[in-house]
Design brief:
The protein has six helices and eleven strands. With 197 residues, it is an alpha+beta fold. The strands form two sheets. It has a six-stranded mixed sheet. Strand 2 and strand 3 form a beta hairpin.
């Protein structure tokens, strides 16, 4: 079954943008930066790909981090996430269209612009997830890694993006195995935590 899944991903990698998809690290992926990670691909085109690891919380909160870099007070006890090994400005996934630079998938936006971040902090009506660092791939690199079986790929689920489910990697690994076994299963009809099914 694994070979069939890898072959299907290799075929997908040839001509498809992975924007709005989860990359789920294969158990055999050797890079320690991505051990048991779930990456949301923010942008993917001929220049390469940008992603954020969504399941590695840091031992600091968004509020603590924000209050070190801004004069606008912000109480947010959610964890700041390690978005990947590449240095980057503070980045946010959210649902506020007017503060979005990229629509990653319908209703889910990405920004790293200071004005947008200030708007999100002032508004506080949108679910948000803050990241320090990001993951990046050069042109063709991600497609090669997917073809080599380093990553399993599935359409992103909005509930999982903002989830604080413990061991999200395990939950999504099981889900993608179910999808491989039943290819016509619609992931949007699966509950946010399939283990309770």
């Amino acid at each position: 079954m694994r070979m069939g899944l890898v072959a299907r991903h290799a075929e997908l990698a040839m001509d498809t943008s992975f924007q709005g998809h989860f990359l789920i690290a294969s158990p055999t992926l050797g890079d320690p930066n991505f051990f048991r990670t779930v990456v949301l691909i923010i942008q993917h085109d001929e220049s390469g790909a940008l992603g954020l690891v969504i399941n590695h919380p840091l031992h600091t909160t968004v509020g603590e981090t924000w209050n070190r870099i801004s004069d606008i007070p912000y109480e947010n006890d959610a964890p700041l996430y390690l978005g990947g090994p590449c240095e980057s400005p503070l980045m946010v996934l959210h649902c506020l269209e007017e503060a979005g630079k990229i629509e990653v998938l319908p209703g889910i936006y990405f920004t790293a612009e200071a004005d947008d971040l200030n708007e999100l902090v002032r508004d506080q009506s949108s679910p948000v997830k803050f990241f320090a660092g990001s993951a990046g791939w050069t042109n063709g690199q991600l497609e090669t890694e997917v073809s080599d079986g380093d990553w399993l790929v599935m359409p992103a689920l909005a509930d999982q993006i903002f989830s604080r489910v413990e061991d999200q990697w395990r939950v999504l690994t099981r889900l993608i195995a179910r999808l491989a076994a039943v290819p016509d299963l619609n992931p949007k009809l699966i509950p946010p935590d399939p283990s309770v099914n």
